[in-house]
Design brief:
Elements lengths: L2 E7 L16 E2 L2 E2 H11 L4 E6 L3 H8 L4 E4 L5 H7 L2 H5 L4 E6 L7 H11 L4 E7 L8 E4 L5 E5 L6 H4 L3 E10 H9 L21 E5 L11 H21 L3 E2 L5 E3 L4 E2 L4 E2 L3 E4 L3 E2 L4 E2 L4 E3 L2 E2 L4 E2 L4 E3 L2 E2 L4 E2 L4 E2 L4 E2 L4 E13 L4 E13 L4 E2 L4 E3 L9 E3 L4 E2 L4 E3 L2 E3 L4 E2 L4 E2 L8 E2 L11 H9 L3
Parallel strand pairs: 1-4, 1-6, 4-5, 7-11, 12-15, 13-16, 14-17, 15-18, 16-19, 17-20, 18-21, 19-22, 20-23, 21-24, 22-25, 23-26, 24-27, 25-27, 26-27, 27-28, 28-29, 28-31, 29-32, 30-33, 31-34, 32-35, 33-36, 35-37
Antiparallel strand pairs: 2-3, 6-10, 7-10, 8-9
Bound molecules: uridine-diphosphate-N-acetylglucosamine and calcium ion (CA).
The site of calcium ion has 3 residues, from loops.
Length: 452
């Protein structure tokens, strides 16, 4: 079947009360229109045309390379939106599937079933029976059961408002018939809007769907939260069926783009975002957010960590309360403890920084121990400089490493040192004032003051 998918995404989205175009609002971490565009690609559409208007540049920029665009200059209803793509439709011979950019829950398999059932009809749409039809167009059928019209809520009589079959806003039409029917519809109300729903007046096949949840059209932020919840539930279920233990699916916020291997355990209240991968056997504890990062096998990410654009090698222990900023690379068997921050820093196998440390712009070898309170002083207010710590080095607690600086293989830096010059391999680096002990000084001083 020659297929063109038309995605309506020009609407004002007035009820979102925002500068951001509605279809770019994120449901479960991704802009709503992405789910719709993904479904269109999965159906094997030859052409994907997105009707843009409100926030046109932003929506076009977001979908660039994935679709062609038609611009609706004034938002005068869903019928007018389809007319904005008339040129594109008239150059196409086949089926046009119309989807709304604000319906992120529709599954490709549902669309496939609809298209199979509707392919013989020149004009078809999906409907569904719902518990609360508020806000949707009602499907009105005649005594013989055929569709007479779709009535928008604001134009409906009390009787019509009680109707529980609604229009989902999804249509499948022959391209030529669609254009012919569009020409035949009149504008309504003071704003002279064109309702796409009017194309069914000359007869249409209504495909009644079962799952009302899939057809949630997001008009406000309450519905956006509802849509996110449904998506997160679906994602949690998928991972659980794949062998991931999600202790509390209701507080598992995982993007559809995330990969998780089996035998991973996720504690409550965890966010996994973007291009993230969690390896087999790892555990992620509560309050952690991981974005665009790889956590390899058998790692333990303890409570309240933030990890972005980083790589955590196998068998590592991170946190609690650790911060891996972009470019942190741990080669494996590492320990990054509480209140440790890393940025553009790599660490060889078996190295540790267990407490209260900042490692930025650093290259750290294997089996290095970074003592509590170590700071790489990487910034002079103008430029960033690199610290190199070679294999087997021991950095004592409360050390400042003023970059650029290198600590050679196997060297030891004494606690409390401020290192401004390179430390050669195997050397002790120490910068400390000599300790003096003055015997009996305290009691003598107290006596002089006249205090006990
Ligand atoms: C529409 C349907 C209603 C259906 C409901 C399902 C019409 C007249 N009404 O109502 O029967 O039950 O969807 O969710 O079709 N858009 C444009 N340009 C416009 C107006 C809208 O591109 O001028 C786009 C919007 O961006 C959105 C979609 O069309 O993606 C639906 O618009 P919306 O205003 O949400 O229509 P509803 O009132 O929900
Ligand atoms: Ca809507």
């Amino acid at each position: 079947m020659n297929l063109m998918v038309l995605i309506l995404a020009a609407g004002k989205g007035t009820r979102m009360k925002s500068e951001t175009p509605k279809v770019l609002f994120r449901a479960a971490g991704r802009p709503m229109v992405d789910y719709v565009a993904d479904a269109a690609s999965e159906l094997g559409a030859e052409r994907i045309n997105v009707v843009i208007g409100n926030g046109a540049e932003l929506v076009q920029k977001h979908l660039a390379g994935r679709a062609e665009f038609s611009v609706q200059t004034e938002q005068r209803g869903t019928g007018d939106a389809v007319m904005a793509a008339a040129e594109s439709i008239s150059s196409f011979n086949g089926k046009v599937l119309i989807l709304c950019g604000d319906m992120p829950l529709v599954k490709p398999e549902t669309l496939k079933a609809f298209m199979d059932a509707a392919s013989k009809h020149p004009v078809a749409f999906m409907s569904v029976k719902v518990k609360n039809p508020f806000g949707y167009g009602r499907v009105i059928r005649g005594v013989d059961g055929s569709v007479i019209k779709i009535v928008e809520e604001k134009d409906a009589t009390e009787d019509e408002k009680r109707e529980d079959e609604i229009n989902t806003g999804i249509y499948l039409c022959d391209s030529k018939e669609l254009l012919a029917r569009l020409e035949g519809i009149d504008c309504v109300n003071a704003q002279c809007e064109y309702y796409l729903t009017d194309i069914v007046k000359k007869g249409a096949f209504a495909y009644l769907c079962k799952d009302e949840k899939e057809f949630l059209g997001v008009n406000n932020r309450v519905q956006l939260a509802e849509a996110s919840r449904v998506l997160w539930d679906r994602i949690a279920e998928k991972h659980m069926m794949n062998g991931v233990s999600v202790l509390d699916p209701a507080t598992f916020y995982c993007d559809s783009t995330v990969e998780i291997e089996n035998d991973v355990t996720i504690y409550p209240n965890v966010f996994l975002e973007g291009d993230t991968k969690i390896g087999k056997g790892s555990i992620v504890y509560s309050g952690t957010r991981i974005k665009d990062s790889v956590i390899a096998e058998n790692c333990e990410i303890k409570e309240n960590c933030l990890i972005t654009d980083s790589h955590v090698g196998a068998e590592s222990h991170i946190g609690p309360m650790a911060h891996l900023r972009p470019g942190s690379v741990l080669k494996g068997d590492n320990k990054i403890g509480n209140f440790v921050e890393m940025k553009k820093a790599c660490m060889g196998e078996g190295s540790k920084a267990s407490h209260l440390t900042y490692l930025g712009d650093a290259e750290i070898g294997k089996d290095v121990n970074i003592g509590c309170g170590t700071i790489t002083c990487n910034y002079d207010g103008y430029n960033k400089y690199k610290t190199v710590i070679e294999d087997g080095v021991f950095i004592g607690s409360d050390t400042q490493l003023v970059a650029p600086v290198t600590v050679g293989k196997g060297a030891l830096v004494a606690a409390g040192s401020t290192i401004t010059k390179d430390v050669p391999a195997d050397a002790l680096g120490i910068t400390r004032a000599k300790q003096q002990n003055m015997e009996g000084w305290v009691s003598a001083w107290k006596k002089k003051k006249g205090v006990e």
